[in-house]
Amino acid sequence: MAPKDTLRIGITCYPSVGGSGILATALGKDLARRGHDVHFICYERPFRLRVDGPRLHFHRVMVNDYGLFKYPDYTLPLSVRMAEVSRDQRLDVLHVHYAVPHATAAILARSMLPREQQPCVVTTLHGTDTTLLGYDPGYAPAIRHALINSDAVTTVSESLKRETQRVFDFDDSIDVIHNFFVPRPPRRSREEVRRELGLRDEVVVLHSSNLRPGKRIDLLLETVARVHPLNAFRLLILAGEPFAPFSEQVQRLGLTECVIVREKVTDIEDYLQVADIGLFTSETESFCLSILEAMCFGCPSVSTRVGGIPEVVEDNQSSVLIPFGDVAALAGALEGLIDDKTRRSALGRAAQARARERFSAEVIVPRYEALYRRLCR
Ligand code: GMT
Fold first, then answer.
1. How far apart are the CA of 19 and the centre of ligand 1, in A?
2. What is the CATH code of the structural domain delimited by 3-181+360-376?
3. From the CA of 112, how far away is ligand 1's center (Å)?
4. What's the CA gap between 231 and 12, in Å, rounded?
5. Nearest CA among 355, 147, 31, 298 for reference residue 11
6. Which atom of ligand 1 is the closest one to the Cα of 284?
7. 11, 20, 292: residue to mutate for ligand 1 pocket, most atoms within 8 A of CB
8. Which residue puts its alpha carbon closest to atom 17 of ligand 1?
9. Per-block average pLDDT, block size 10, for the chain (377 residues)?
10. Is the peptide bond before 101 cis (omega within 30 degrees of 0)?
11. For the CA of 97, the nearest atom of ligand 1
C-alpha cells in the first residue's frame, strides 16, 4: 500500500469478553494487516490483542479513584487520552465501538483539539447500547447527542438500525456493516480436544456467550433437559463470565453429566472445531457473533428468531430458527439435528459457505475502509 493510502485509526472498545470488543479487535488487526496504523485506546489490552504488532499499538487509559468520587470516572480520562493520541499520532479517524461512554468521550476529545487536528468520529452500535440503554432516561439523551455529533454511525445489522432510528428518533443516515470473523487455525487437534472434554461418540452442542441475562441461560438449560436421550450429546458451554450462578439449575435439571463448562477460553477455535450444533436461546441479539464463529467451522445452529439473527443465518438452509421462548420447539429442533447427521452436515456446509461469502474480513473490512475514506475526503 502506498504511504498516502495509509490511514491512522484510533479504536476504542470494551476490552473484556464480549462481541463488540472481539469485533473491534479483529477489525483493528485486519486494518493493520492492510497497511493502516491502528491505535487501541482502552483501560486494558483487549483480550484478543495479546501483543502489539506491526502498525498495531495499545494506549492505556489510566483511571483514578479519588476519595471525593463515590464512583470512579472513566469518561473524562478516556476523552483526554483520545485527544492526546489523536494529536500525537495525527489520527484521521476515531472509531468507537459501543456508544456508552465511548462515543461521548470521542466527541469531547474532538472538541478539545484545534480544528486541523480533529479526527473524524465513527460510532458503531453493537446492541445493548440501543436495546437496553436506549430505554434508560438516564442515558438516552446523551447517546442521542453523541450519535448526532458523530461523523458517521454504523450498526451491525438492519434490525439494530431500525431499532436505533425508532428508540432515539434518529433520522440521520446509518450504515449497516455486518460483523465478520477470521478463524485462526486451531492449536490442538480435534482428537486432543475431544479427549480433554472426555467425549466418546457424543454429539457436541455448543453455546458460547458472556451469559448475560439476555442470553437466557435458563431457557438454554431447560431446552437441553428436554432432549432425549440425554446421553447422545454433551452441552459444551464456553463462558465469558463465571458459570457458578447456573450450577444449581444444572443440578436441579439432572444435567450434571451432560454439561461441560470452560470459562474465559482464549483459543476458541480449538473448541469450535469439535462443535456439531450451536444452541442460542437469546431474548435479544443484534447479530450474535457466536453463531457466525460456529458457522465458520461448518457448525449450524438452533437459535431463537430475534433481532439480527435472521440476517446472519437462513432458516432451514444454514440453521434452524425458532420463535423466542418456545422451549419445546427448540428442544425438538435440537433433537432432530442430533439424530440426523446428514442434515446437520448439509446445514453446516451451507453455513460455512454463507460465512465466507457474506461475513468474511475480505467482504466486510473494505466497507469500513471505504467509510473512513469517504469521511476523510
Ligand atoms: O450483550 C452482549 O452479548 C455483548 C454485546 C457487546 O457489545 O459485546 O454484544 C452485542 O454485540 C455483538 C457484536 O456486534 C453482537 O453479536 C451481539 O448480538 C450484541 N448483543 C446484543 O445485542 C444483546
1. 5
2. 3.40.50.2000
3. 31
4. 44
5. 31
6. 23
7. 20
8. 288
9. 77 90 96 97 91 92 92 96 98 98 98 98 97 97 98 98 98 96 96 97 97 97 97 97 97 98 93 98 97 98 98 95 98 98 98 98 98 95
10. yes
11. 7
User: 284 C-alpha vs ligand 1 centroid, how far in Å?
Assistant: 9
- Rounded CA separation 183/359 (Å): 12
**CATH code, 190-358:** 3.40.50.2000
Place of cell 449497516: 176
Dig out the grid coordinates for 238 from the structure. 464456553
Asked whether this chain's domains 3-181+360-376 and 190-358 adopt the same fold, the reply is yes
pTM given for the model: 0.95
C-alpha cell at 197: 472434554
* Closest ligand 1 atom to 212 CA: 1
Q: Which residue is associated with the grid cell 463448562?
A: 261
In b/e form, how buried is each residue of 154-164, taking b as 16+ CB within 10 angstroms? bbbbebbbebb
Q: Which sequence spans correspond to the domains of the chain?
A: 3-181+360-376, 190-358
Which pLDDT score is estimated for 377? 84
